[in-house]
Amino acid sequence: MADVQHALAGAGAVVTPPRGDSRAETKSAPRAGKRERRGLKPKAVPHPTVAERAATGKAARAIAPRSGQGEWEPGSDRRDPVELLEEQAASRVPDLVPIRYGRMLVSPFTFFRGAAYPMAADLAGAARTGLEVQLCGDAHLSNFGAFAGPDRRLMFSINDFDETLPGPFEWDVKRLVASFAVAGRDRGFDAKQRRSINRAVTRSYREAIRGFAAMSNLDLWYSRIEVDEIAALVAREESGKQRKRFERNLAKARSKDSLRALSKLTTAVDGEPRIVSDPPLIVPVEELVSGVEQVEFEEFVQGVIRSYRRTLSADRRRLLERFRYVHAAHKVVGVGSVGARAWIVLMLGRDENDPLFLQLKEAQASVLEPFLGKSAFAKHGQRVVEGQRLTQAASDIMLGWIQGTGLDGVNRDFYVRQLWDGKGSALVELMNPRAMKLYAKLCGNTLAKAHARSGDAIAIASYLGAGDPFDRALASFAEAYADQNERDYNALQEAVASGRVAAETGL
């Protein structure tokens, strides 16, 4: 199969061991690592006063007025969105790209989920505040969810960092608010209901960032949103039907761990578990290669695991060493991620009831790089991991990265995490307006916390102010961009109908 060769191309024969530092790729990248290697003193970190930081935020209003944030009108030189998607698809597994298009064509909402690149191109043309944070880069409402912290308590945060990169805070907020406008249309909400939801996102963000700006550095760093707090909020504010739905979804998330993945994704073969075959979505290694090649490939996978181990802290490295490799498979994931190379790896500990499922997901250049500059990290897997660690209060204990040279001689980056670790997502397709507004507040607050950890909360809070000009502007932007999203969705439909691109639906 052609897709076999392309899948294997991302998992080749040579692994580049991770370095202890992050090599800068651009002149603007951090230089501290190089200075230290040369025996020079690291550069001093500036510490402006609270008043100076607030003044920076207020000054940004002159550069990018808050009312202007609501404007959206495609320029005459706006690039064809399908052309941008094709450009993005060039580095992906060709035989999987039609699945990506098929998933995007389900609705304008699923299209929006896969269209981070066209939206980044659109945001790049607007005035920028200059108030930088570690952007999620794809902060739509389905990229927030629950996961288990190191203490096994379920937390709620951003859970996708494939596109993470430093940039102006408003880019994330605009993508988040627009996603609610698109989702509201998908659910059939009227204009008044959508406007209320759109404003709730930004108001929650604004009020939360002001609260974080008043916190001590340590209190901010330790701050996190636990799912138990959300459950209490839902119990107070939601109807019986929505509350029961939330409780069922929460119970499902709590049950999602490696043991559950073992029962769902494997079958016993000669006394040992093997990942089940479900092509083209799940393809075990023995269906990709055979004979000597299979032995060589499995040796390669074990080499990848050993190299990935070096990116973990010593205690977590010791934990990983207690597991042995058992099996691997290529797996299709997500909507926007379809076509990127992704593997799942099954490992066993003390016995067959002690599994560890890891996911190795390809990390390509962020869709933000053409507009914000290259990452300071030479390896995109490290870019993803460092961005996640910076913005989440606590991350997956198995989070790490690796770089490998494929059979085609191409270097590819991957990040590694647990496949299932208490992961849960909101059931957006079942939300009523009240539930979506509550979820909008939660996502706005969560995004503000991530930005406060990585950026200057005082400056951002000063820019936003105590009033609602920014809220109203972004609510307008969201509706205007939802119109644009529908036009772009129609353009993809036309491209498929004309044969320009191929789409495979139902997968």
Record the SSE blueprint.
Layout: H1 2-9, E1 14-16, H2 32-37, H3 50-63, H4 81-89, H5 97-104, H6 108-114, H7 116-123, E2 132-135, E3 144-148, E4 154-158, E5 165-168, H8 169-186, H9 191-213, H10 217-222, E6 225-226, H11 227-237, H12 240-255, H13 258-265, E7 266-269, E8 272-275, E9 282-284, H14 291-309, H15 314-320, E10 324-331, E11 342-348, E12 355-362, H16 369-372, H17 380-391, E13 400-405, E14 411-418, E15 424-425, H18 433-454, H19 457-464, H20 469-497
Antiparallel strand pairs: 1-13, 2-5, 3-4, 3-15, 4-6, 7-8, 9-10, 10-11, 11-12, 12-14, 13-14
Could you explain the architecture of this structure?
The chain contains 20 helices and 15 strands. It has 507 residues and is α+β, with helices and mostly antiparallel strands. It folds into two domains: 181 residues, no CATH class; 270 residues, no CATH class. A hairpin with a 5-residue loop joins strand 3 and strand 4. Helix 3 packs across helix 19, helix 9 packs parallel to helix 18 and helix 9 packs across helix 20.
